[in-house]
Amino acid sequence: MSSDDLPGKDASGEDHRRGHRSRLKDRFARAGRAGLADYEFLELILFRSIPQRDVKPLAKDLIARFGSVAEVLGAPIARLREVEGVGESTALDFKIVEAAGHELAKGAVGKRVQLGSWSAVIDYCRAAMAFAEKEQFRILFLDKRNGLLADEVQQTGTVDHTPVYPREVMKRALELSASAIILVHNHPSGDPTPSEADVRMTREIADIAKPLGVVVHDHIIVGRNGHSSLRGLRLI
């Protein structure tokens, strides 16, 4: 039995709190995540972190500050701590939930990347990178059947730039005996539109990869406002 399930005092405020928590848990058990507003879903997480007080105002403050559940979970601990009522333990709980979500998405991709359906790849990339505050450049290394050999963050840069070295990309692909790669990076600005530098770098990697027998399937750019595919845009 968790601490917020224990019998409370007779005070009407505490009775109301216990009743609200019970109702919210019941609704989640019946309808799942779809049955809850963003702030209500955050309340469920906060119930475990802060068992002895009403957390609805805090959950609403977090949504107002960051914009969505995904952005709350993806925010750095230091920024979470800037919100009144969020302590170190609460911030860490959010990061644990975020990491669990990444593992679920990664598991879906790891079983098999099906190139006819990009949904698992996109979901994983957005979960892992869309709300990061700095640019990351990661590579999905695939075998000849498009199974995931490795998922690696090769570079982390600033808020608007990540240095990428095409020969290092191919060196790692050959080390893993990869037959194909998918390039992924995020735009912290939120706009996933590829830049001229993104296109130029992708073509350079593809040119080096081709004679080595490695296919560049795509370069996916993710952001808060969606994603773009250079392959889909016919830029590679």
TrEMBL record:
Residues 114-236 form the MPN domain. Residues 1-23 are annotated as: Disordered. Pfam families: RadC (PF04002). GO terms for biological process: proteolysis. CDD domains: MPN_DUF2466. Signal peptide: none annotated. GO terms for molecular function: metal ion binding; metallopeptidase activity. SUPFAM superfamilies: JAB1/MPN domain, RuvA domain 2-like. Residues 1-17 have a biased composition (Basic and acidic residues). The keyword DNA-binding does not apply. Keywords: Hydrolase, Metal-binding, Metalloprotease, Protease, Zinc. Belongs to the UPF0758 family. NCBIfam families: PRK00024.1 (NF000642), radc (TIGR00608). This is MPN domain-containing protein. It comes from Alsobacter soli.
